[in-house]
Amino acid sequence: MRLGIDFGTSNCAAAAVVDGQVRAVDFDGAAQFRTTVWFPDVMRDADQFELDDAMASQVDQLVEGFTRDARASGRSRSAQAMRSEAIRIVRREWMEARMREPASSTTLLQNAVYGDAALDAYFIEEEGNLVQSPKSMLGYQLHPRARQTIAGIAAHILEHIRLTASRQFGEPVRTAMLGRPVQFRSSIGDAGNEQALGILREAALQAGFDAVEFLEEPAAAAMAHHAASQQRHEVVVVDIGGGTTDIAHASVGGAQPPQVHRAWGIPRGGTDIDLALSLTAYMPLFGRGITRVPNHHYVEAAMVQDMPRQREFRTHKYDEVDAPYGPRLAALQEASNTSRLYREVEGCKIALSSQDEHNSPLYFIERALQITTPAPVLDDAAAGYLRELNTLLAQVRQDIGHDPAVVFVTGGMSRAPYLRAAAAAAFPGAELVIGDASFGVVAGLAHAAAAALPA
Ligand SMILES: Nc1ncnc2c1ncn2[C@@H]1O[C@H](COP(=O)(O)OP(=O)(O)OP(=O)(O)O)[C@@H](O)[C@H]1O
Ligand SMILES: [Mg+2]
């Protein structure tokens, strides 16, 4: 069983080709879940797994086998490496056996909650650790400890996906094709891409996969469009996600295999619009532009994906800031409130795609506090991202030198009419095809996994 995995900034999905058909992995009744995880207490990683006597002797047997194999093949392997490998295998089998038991016991054993349920758990418990969009941190300058934590979080999410897929398909899933953006979000330039791939590889291994490969996300979406196209044609695929915007130029459809000519990407997406909307529409309620609280405090509060910034925001003191702003900032510092505010901001961005105004109740800050945001405010907040998108689209049009037959849009942000319109306008001679916003990339990854990976 070869799985396609879309480990997205905002949402995760997985699918496999079974009997020639793409089958989505079902996560509590949905084909995707929010890339959010909550740990009630300290996160346990694979190395901290506790062996009982039976498992310990299984590990010893595996190590003996590895030692024999190494000797026979003349390869030298350290005792430590062989023991880690054996523990990984025993732990994986133990997890898979637990997965066949009722869900409640696995949740307890895994010690983590995923998706929207993670937010709810955090809101109810008001403690523990909430991690949102860990993908956006993979390319950042990370201390070794932070790198290990991020890898551990990614491993938990990938293991959740692997075990859910294994249960659904009735067999252990151990190989995967993972999507990757053309450019990861990075604070260290191009080195961020290598670091991100390294962390994902490490995480996949910890999660019990034996083999993973990567495919650029827009190339994957082109595979899905290929599978659905009778006639051969040229396409520009535009995948607008939460963290990145990725484009591929490909020839697809008909009997020939799909051919991806080139890919482009910028590390910008829906979360950049969320940040701008938060700063311009919501943060003035907390005194931004009115008080002398520095702007970076508001940026820290708004960026819920950035764990160091979130921690930093909670260290500030607002006793001296005049009411109502000081008390509101202090309320925003309370455990889950930046996440609650972010949920309102994102909801506002989505609502204003199709409505003239949107109301957010902010009772968690102040009992009667609420804010009504008219649609033109979103136009302003989205302007910076839209400029970058238009520059990218113009570059792609120039590099290709002509309009393709089709411009195919996918990714959650492609639901926004103003972004669809931008993609269409960049290629005026092309037909605009609206792909499945949530499923385009993962369907292509499933096809690519079926074609490329060992079973
Ligand atoms: N109806 C909508 N209108 C506007 N934006 C939307 C809508 N639905 C979802 N979004 C936005 O789409 C983004 C998520 O898209 P998607 O699920 O494709 O991202 P992702 O694959 O997780 O991220 P990436 O590919 O960048 O890693 C979020 O920013 C979300 O707010
Ligand atoms: Mg995506």
From TrEMBL:
<dbReference type="InterPro" id="IPR043129">
    <property type="entry name" value="ATPase_NBD"/>
</dbReference>
<protein>
    <submittedName>
        <fullName>Heat shock protein Hsp70</fullName>
    </submittedName>
</protein>
<dbReference type="GO" id="GO:0140662">
    <property type="term" value="F:ATP-dependent protein folding chaperone"/>
</dbReference>
<dbReference type="Pfam" id="PF00012">
    <property type="entry name" value="HSP70"/>
</dbReference>
<dbReference type="GO" id="GO:0005524">
    <property type="term" value="F:ATP binding"/>
</dbReference>
<dbReference type="InterPro" id="IPR013126">
    <property type="entry name" value="Hsp_70_fam"/>
</dbReference>
<keyword id="KW-0547">Nucleotide-binding</keyword>
<keyword id="KW-0067">ATP-binding</keyword>
<keyword id="KW-0346">Stress response</keyword>
